[in-house]
Amino acid sequence: SSHLQKKRRAATARRQHLKSAMLQLAATEIEKEAAAKEVEKQNYLAEHCPPLSLPGSMQELQELCKKLHAKIEAVDEERYDTEVKLQKTTKELEDLNQKLFDLRGKFKRPPLRRVRMSADAMLRALLGSKHKVCMDLRANLKQVKKEDTEKEKDLRDVGDWRKNIEEKSGMEGRKKMFEAGE
User: Fold this and answer.
1) What digits encode the pLDDT tens for the residues 45-95?
2) Is the dihedral of CA 170, 174, 179, 180 positive or negative?
3) What would be an example GO MF term here (predicted)?
4) CB-based contacts of 133: which residues, under 8 Å, 6+ apart?
5) What is the pLDDT of residues 2-23, one digit of tens each?
6) How far is residue 123's CA from residue 117's CA, in Å, rounded to a whole number?
7) DSSP codes joined into one string, 7-41
8) Which of 33, 108, 135, 148 could form a disulfide with 119 if both were Cys (CB 3.0 to 4.6 A apart)?
């Protein structure tokens, strides 16, 4: 058993090692992503927001203010549209998740308990009050006399032709006949 324990320990150690390696890799990837985002942000700002040079006259200053206001409005509209889109998508996601949850819930198999139940009780449970037929299985059985079984035994020994026919019919029968070389 010590061999088994060593194997288990080795597997656990390997699992731990892999886990830490994956975490390390993920951390590195996150750092790279953050750096890339920062670079992207700087490039975007450089392209879309040139350094501000304030004009000298009042007239030019007012013009600049009007331009900036127009830009702010455009950006605000864009931001609003994006937010609405995001909310819509989030709602759709939530709905789909709820549907998934509902579906999972519907088909969850209950833990089954063994229950001793007569055929009558089973039919009553399934059919409710509509169940009238009594299912006393023993009542419908044919009474067999001892002599009858003796006769059947003799017939079996001779070889019942019906049994023989059934054995030779269908693919199974053909297979048996082929294997027997008939």
Assistant:
1) 988 888 878 888 899 999 999 999 999 999 999 999 999 999 999 999 999
2) positive
3) actin binding
4) 123
5) 888 999 999 999 999 999 999 9
6) 10
7) HHHHHHHHHHHHHHHHHHHHHHHHHHHHHHHHHHH
8) 135
